[in-house]
């Protein structure tokens, strides 16, 4: 599933209308119909729950290969009354075609359609008509004077008037949303510039305060469609019906939170157009792993395989006070399926980690009695690495004198894939401009920074990184020729060729010490099994998140998950 910026969406709109000849009114009609479908679905859910409130949808038939709708949600958003279990559910649901019969249950429903003066408002006007035809009581609320609408939106306005659908002009007529059964937010879409101005701001506040379920058209009004930043006041939707292509801001926090459950609906724009027009950002799903990354997610084993078949990982990690980080990375590399894993530790640590995981091979890589790494250990490490397929460096490494030169030697003299995490990234960041002189590697490099490590790599603040995670990650990967995994909620995987993926597996309970070390081991292990850097990074992040969800279910609560649980759940 491709993801676009507001500007890319405008280009795709224009191409569809001007080059393919599909009328804008057709797109708007389909958009409004899709919004109406989702509103009717919510009404049906409420009627099923019997108490007139939104309950979590029962198990839907999941069609793993459904092309039409990709739906995921944070349950606490959809079931306002159910015990939010904090786990994000990912499911692909086929939305059954909705027959617009006059269902008696819906005639109790009174929905308000908040309409802006752009085409987002136009979509809302089409939805108002469909919902009226389905039997709901509908009132259209114009944020601006109706005569400010232009083009297709003005055409929608005239139809509403011709049908005699009740209309309120905000600011001129009284508006009380407290009795609303639901509200459609068709105020601002991808044409928004900056925080909502009056009267949109007041109307958004009134809608949020109403307590009624909010369905946003395309994007919640007030949300930055590109970065996911909230320009308050911003609508807090329980469902966002995203049109044609997923907007980036709906997947990045805090936007993902404000959007609630996101449903991407086909409205007549050819699905392949984004790829043809050079869009390279995709949602990371099983389909994406199979189709875009050509990953064999079944991970078949050959009947006559042996340990050597599945690669040998060398993990250079762990120090006196942080030996566990190295152990977690090494264990994860083994659990994900590597044939062999050697864990290299400072010499003084070795006697203490013997037996920590009997399946691991151990090696002393830094002589000295203090249990810390030192620059002299580069020779030993390079010696060990020559007989290994992948080198993972960083978890629990610590900093030491001349560590930049040490890392540079590994970077330039080891000719296999390199995975750098934690302190290896901090050492890389401390190289500063000298990094330009480091030899460009022919073999893959995968960096796995969390936002703070990314900030140090870029020399900016963590807040700036988080303001536009996708752009920062993609820019760094492209200019440095590396594969970069920017961790955090909705991890970004950015590849040197410009391709990028946003992961939706995982949950907040994985914010626990060592979870990142586990990911490093997973990615190194997948590289050892022959996946390329993009495949190993994307598949590794995806599996890491699924394992975290599984671990939370086993522990009955996300807060109880520790990093070792994620390894066991792999
Ligand atoms: N994706 C598709 O194929 C289709 C999308 N459609 C819908 O069109 C909107 C985008 O419409 P556009 O007219 O470009 O802009 P908006 O409706 O989002 O609103 C802009 C409108 O509001 C004013 N405005 C801008 N910023 C602010 C602000 N901060 N405060 C107040 N007012 C603001 C601005 O002057 C404009 O007049 C897209 O989201 C879809 O919903 C098509 O309908 C179908 C095809
Ligand atoms: K909207």
UniProtKB/TrEMBL annotation:
Its EC number is 4.2.1.136, 5.1.99.6. Homotetramer. Binds 1 potassium ion per subunit. Residues 290-570 form the YjeF C-terminal domain. Its cofactor is K(+); Mg(2+). (6S)-NADPHX binds at residues 119-123, 189-195, 200, 218, 325, 396, 450, 517. Belongs to the NnrE/AIBP family. Belongs to the NnrD/CARKD family. It catalyses: (6R)-NADPHX = (6S)-NADPHX; (6S)-NADHX + ADP = AMP + phosphate + NADH + H(+); (6R)-NADHX = (6S)-NADHX; (6S)-NADPHX + ADP = AMP + phosphate + NADPH + H(+). The keyword Cytoplasm does not apply. This is Bifunctional NAD(P)H-hydrate repair enzyme. Keywords: ATP-binding, Isomerase, Lyase, Metal-binding, Multifunctional enzyme, NAD, NADP, Nucleotide-binding, Potassium. GO terms for molecular function: NAD(P)HX epimerase activity. InterPro entries: Carbohydrate_kinase_pred_CS, CARKD, Nnr, Ribokinase-like, YjeF_N_dom, YjeF_N_dom_sf. It comes from Paenibacillus brasilensis.
């Amino acid at each position: 599933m491709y993801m676009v910026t507001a500007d890319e969406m405008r280009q795709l709109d224009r191409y569809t209308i001007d080059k393919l000849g599909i009328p804008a009114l057709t797109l708007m009609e389909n958009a409004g119909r899709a919004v109406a479908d989702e509103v009717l679905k919510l009404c049906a859910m409420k009627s099923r729950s019997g108490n007139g409130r939104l309950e979590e949808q029962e198990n839907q038939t999941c069609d793993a290969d459904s092309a039409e709708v990709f739906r995921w949600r944070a349950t606490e958003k959809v079931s306002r009354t159910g015990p939010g279990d904090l786990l994000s559910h990912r499911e692909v649901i086929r939305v059954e075609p909705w027959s617009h019969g006059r269902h008696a249950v819906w005639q109790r429903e009174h929905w308000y359609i908040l309409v802006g003066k752009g085409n987002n408002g136009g979509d809302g006007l089409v939805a108002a008509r469909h919902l009226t035809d389905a039997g709901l009581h509908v009132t259209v609320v114009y944020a601006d004077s109706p005569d400010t609408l232009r083009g297709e939106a003005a055409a929608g306005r005239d139809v509403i008037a011709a049908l005699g659908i009740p209309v309120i002009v905000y600011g001129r007529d009284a508006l009380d949303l407290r009795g609303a059964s639901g509200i459609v937010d068709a105020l601002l879409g991808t044409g928004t510039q900056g925080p909502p101005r009056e009267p949109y701001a007041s109307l958004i506040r009134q809608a949020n305060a109403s307590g009624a379920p909010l369905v946003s058209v395309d994007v919640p009004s007030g949300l930055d469609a590109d970065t996911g930043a909230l320009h308050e006041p911003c609508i807090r939707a329980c469902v966002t019906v995203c049109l044609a292509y997923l907007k980036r801001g709906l997947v990045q926090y805090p936007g993902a939170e404000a959007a609630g459950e996101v449903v991407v609906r086909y409205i007549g724009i050819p699905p392949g157009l984004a790829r043809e027009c050079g869009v390279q950002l995709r949602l990371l799903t099983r389909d994406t792993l199979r189709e875009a990354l050509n990953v064999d997610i079944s991970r078949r084993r050959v009947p006559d395989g042996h340990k050597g078949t599945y690669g040998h990982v060398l993990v250079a990690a762990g120090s006196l006070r942080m030996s566990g980080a190295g152990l977690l990375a090494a264990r994860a590399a083994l659990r994900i399926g590597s044939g062999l894993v050697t864990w290299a530790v400072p010499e003084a640590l070795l006697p203490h980690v013997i037996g920590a995981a009997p399946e691991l091979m151990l090696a002393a890589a830094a002589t000295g009695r203090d249990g810390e790494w030192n620059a002299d250990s580069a020779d030993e490490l390079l010696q060990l690495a020559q007989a290994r397929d992948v080198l993972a460096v960083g978890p629990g490494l610590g900093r030491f004198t001349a560590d930049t030169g040490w890392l540079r030697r590994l970077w330039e003299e080891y000719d296999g894939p390199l995975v750098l995490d934690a302190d290896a990234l901090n050492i890389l960041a401390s190289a500063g401009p000298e990094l330009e002189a480091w030899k460009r590697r022919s073999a893959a490099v995968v960096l796995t920074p969390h936002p703070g490590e990314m900030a140090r790599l870029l020399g900016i603040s963590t807040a700036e990184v988080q303001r536009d995670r996708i752009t920062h990650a993609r820019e760094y990967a492209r200019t440095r020729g590396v594969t970069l995994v920017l961790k955090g909620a909705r991890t970004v995987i950015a590849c040197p060729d410009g391709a990028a993926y946003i992961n939706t597996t995982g949950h907040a309970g994985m914010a626990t010490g060592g979870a990142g070390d586990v990911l490093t081991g997973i990615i190194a292990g997948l590289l050892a099994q022959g996946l390329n850097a993009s495949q190993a990074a994307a598949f590794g992040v995806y599996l890491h998140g699924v394992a975290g969800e599984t671990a939370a279910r086993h522990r009955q609560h996300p807060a109880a998950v520790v990093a070792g649980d994620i390894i066991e759940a792999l």
